[in-house]
Amino acid sequence: MAISFVSTDKAPAAIGPYSQAAKVGPFLFASGQIPLRADGTLVEGDVVEQTHQVFSNIQAVLAEAGGSLTNVVKATVFIKDMNDFGQLNEVYGQYFGDHKPARSTVEVARLPRDVKVEIEIVAYIE
Questions:
Q1: For 31-84, where are the alpha helices, taking DSSP H only?
Q2: pTM of the full predicted structure?
Q3: pLDDT tens, residue order, the chain (126 aa)
């Protein structure tokens, strides 16, 4: 099965030796998105502002691959401070609504650029 790589200028470029996403058959494995704007500038606000930017980036990568948030089957959330979980969860729910993909949420010691949140997804796009 062939692997293709997804890249869009509507989300920040990878800041290391990886791609924004890899597509294998109908599955899209998107790299973790942090709250960087497409121009590479960082959203330095609270976890709410940062999570909105993360979702903007995820949506751009999904759109480039021909999908949307309704195609997401699994999300992994990395959060700097579990005390922010309620606020993050509220924003997360605004984007997924009744579509409830499987999810893991992990508090981590540090994230790239010292951001408050990073989210990666797996989607099924036919």
A1: 47-64
A2: 0.97
A3: 799 999 999 999 998 899 999 999 999 999 999 999 999 999 999 999 999 999 999 999 999 999 999 999 999 999 999 999 999 999 999 999 999 999 999 999 999 999 999 999 999 999
Residues in a beta bridge with 103:
75
Domains by residue range for the chain, with CATH: 3-74+96-112 (3.30.1330.40)
Query: Helix 85-96 to helix 47-64 angle, to the nearest 10 degrees?
Result: 30
Cα separation, 48 vs 88, whole angstroms: 6
Q: How big, in percent rounded to 5, are the helix, strand and coil portions of the chain?
A: 30, 30, 40
SS3 at position 119:
strand
Distances (CA, A) of 6 to 24, 29, 40, 66, 126: 11, 10, 18, 10, 15
The residue ranges of DSSP E strands in the chain, in sequence order, are 3-6, 21-24, 27-33, 72-79, 102-107, 117-124
